[in-house]
Amino acid sequence: MKKSMLGKCLTSTLAGVLTFAVSGCGSVANSSIDQRLTSQEIADLTMKWWPGDYSNAEQISFLKEDGAPIWNEGQHEDGQTFGGHLPVTSYYRTIDIPAFGEKVLYLEEFTFNDNPYRQRLYTIKVDQEDKVRVKLWYFPDKTTYANAWKHLSEVSKLTPDDMSPLPDSCDLIVHQQDDNRLHMMMPKDQCKFGKNIFDYQVSLSAEDFWFRDRIVDAETMEITMTAGGFTYHKLDKVVN
Fold first, then answer.
1. At 80, which CATH number?
2. Residues 6+ apart with CB under 8 A from 138
3. How far apart are CA 239 and CA 54, in angstroms?
4. Which pLDDT tens digits describe the chain residue by residue (240 residues)?
5. pTM for this structure?
6. Which of 18, 67, 103, 108 is most buried (CB neighbours < 10 A)?
């Protein structure tokens, strides 16, 4: 995909319904990190913790009870780029797809009425500087492989030429922290496309993962799109 097409893809995806939330610190039972991990161990733990089905239904319920604003379906189409929190359901799957490496995740996220929100491949590796990196790979569209989380056979046939990777400056760098979570951040102010800087962050445990993102004007450094005041969107792992 050409750079202009990638920028368009980023804008339509990240700008479409950006929104994030946090409520409480969440449980970390059975997920304690008792020692400092090597980079390879952090990469392995990321692959162990992340796969699963997720929902922020409980968070949305609490927010509604508190009278907090909730993002409305079609809000972005109405021209609103700031708002409340968005109901999200996510599916993260380990996928065997050697063309992309040894550690690969496939993910799909949905909002209102199964509206596609994110669809990605994530590749996880330790680089030459001993940093754990998560690279984000975009699909050319979100319809060809819709609901592939239920059956990964078709996705498993893809090669890097079929996808559009974000540049290294947009990789998530994974860090172990003392709160029993793995924290992932893009290099500060480096994921830039045209006049926009994209900022996506994740906090992961064995029971849940939180995310938040925003778009910042590269010249003024003012936030031009976000929701929930750039607080984390908290998704709990669903036990089936």
1. 2.40.128.590
2. 1, 6, 9, 10, 13, 120, 163, 164, 165, 166
3. 9
4. 434 344 444 444 444 434 333 333 333 334 566 688 999 999 999 999 999 999 999 998 988 888 877 776 545 545 555 667 888 999 999 999 999 999 999 999 988 777 678 899 999 999 999 999 999 999 988 888 989 999 999 899 999 999 999 999 999 999 998 888 999 999 999 999 899 999 999 999 999 999 998 999 999 999 888 867 788 999 999 976
5. 0.83
6. 18
Number of domains comprising the chain: 1
Task: Pull the structure tokens for residue 237.
Answer: 């792992």
DSSP state of 168: G
Nearest to 213 by CA among 117, 137, 124: 117
Residue keyed to tokens 């913790």: 49
Q: What does the CA dihedral 185, 232, 28, 94 come to, rounded to 10 degrees?
A: -60
Supply the range of the domain harboring residue 163.
3-237
CA distances from 178 to 60, 90, 182, 183 (A): 27, 26, 9, 10
